[in-house]
Specification:
- The protein has 326 residues and is mainly α.
- It has ten helices and no strands.
- It folds into two domains: 8-283, Up-down Bundle (Growth Hormone, Chain: A); 289-326.
- It starts with 7 loop residues before the first helix and ends with a helix.
């Protein structure tokens, strides 16, 4: 797969795969985690998720500006990995939410999400720019060998980025299975099983002092018996608190897998960064004079390309909108 490609590609692909693996572990359970831990409505949890996901993209612009201004791409990428790891560490601490600590614990969780989004902004786009520079250098070396070698090197760039994104998708494919497995394992070790609807009912029971409408109480009792294998003959505040604590501890411990993935990604980057290039400043191009006919032709081509770009953007917007709604 990596034959005839520059050496730095494998290191960059593995580093990015580890980062994406850690991210998608967290992403797979984030909304449910916020609801089950803090007892907040689905709408509020989804709003937090939306701001977080928006930050993933917006802060990538900030990360690119920082790297361009400092011309320290490796340092920016390394800092991003460290900040993301700190964010996952904050999420992995199994602090039980109570009425006394809710005023600071939810903001603390949001701060952890901001660290992840900001670290991602420092890391993601700049690593891709570094991969581009790898192929710029690869083509420059090939050019010294002759036109035939240059033509062959230029043909490797597209396949190189395809390989790079395959590694991203491999990390994203495996990760969503890890968090549920860890969560279910932790519940099973306490003789309980997973049920997505039970945490909400437990919060309602606790918030209302044990007074629930008959239909909700019957549903709570039925689910409690299911998850405990019939052991929960009486559903009370102690059972609800115990299930919420164990349920959320399982999710916290799945975030430890994200921390491990980030540390692996950071280790790979630190061990290989000496062989990775810093993206170079683009040299100013010589101003060329064009005839009016050439200008009209170029303007027409630019308009066509912009129309195609906006058509693709429209498709992407509605695709991801429906994807995340689902």
């Amino acid at each position: 797969m990596f034959k005839n490609h520059p050496k730095g590609l494998l290191a960059a692909a593995l580093s990015n795969m580890g980062e994406r693996f850690g991210y998608y572990i967290m992403n797979a359970v984030l909304v449910l985690f916020l609801c089950s831990k803090f007892g907040i409505p689905d709408e509020t949890s989804a709003l937090i998720y939306s701001f977080f996901y928006c930050g993933i993209y917006v802060l990538s612009l900030v990360g690119g500006i920082i790297a361009d201004r400092t011309q320290n791409y490796k340092g920016t990428i390394q800092t991003g990995l460290i900040i993301m790891a700190l964010g996952y560490v904050c999420l992995s601490v199994p602090i039980t939410a109570t009425s006394s600590n809710g005023s600071w614990l939810l903001p603390f969780t949001c701060l952890a999400l901001f660290l992840i989004a900001f670290g991602n902004g420092l890391f993601k786009g700049n690593l891709q720019a570094m991969v581009g520079q790898i192929y710029d250098n690869f083509e420059a070396e090939a050019a010294a060998k002759g036109p035939e070698a240059l033509a062959k090197a230029k043909g490797q760039r597209d396949s190189g980025f395809q390989i790079f994104y395959v590694f991203i998708n491999v990390g994203g494919l495996i990760a969503p299975f890890v968090a549920p497995l860890l969560r279910s394992w932790w519940l099973k070790s306490h003789d309980l099983i997973y049920n997505a609807g039970l945490p909400s009912l437990c919060h309602q029971f606790l918030d209302n002092g044990g007074n629930l409408p008959a239909e909700q109480m019957a549903n709570l009792t039925n689910l409690a018996q299911q998850v405990s294998g019939g052991a929960a003959t009486v559903v009370d505040a102690a059972f609800c608190q115990n299930y919420l604590q164990i349920f959320n501890e399982g999710v916290h411990y799945s975030f430890i897998a994200s921390v491990a993935a980030m540390l692996i990604s950071l280790t790979i980057f630190l061990l290989t960064k000496k062989g990775l290039p810093e993206p170079a400043k683009k040299a100013a191009k010589e101003v060329v004079g064009y005839t009016e006919e050439e200008k009209v032709a170029m303007a027409k081509e630019i308009k066509q390309r912009m129309a195609a770009l906006f058509a693709v953007l429209a498709i992407c917007i509605f695709f991801w909108l429906s994807f995340h709604q689902n």
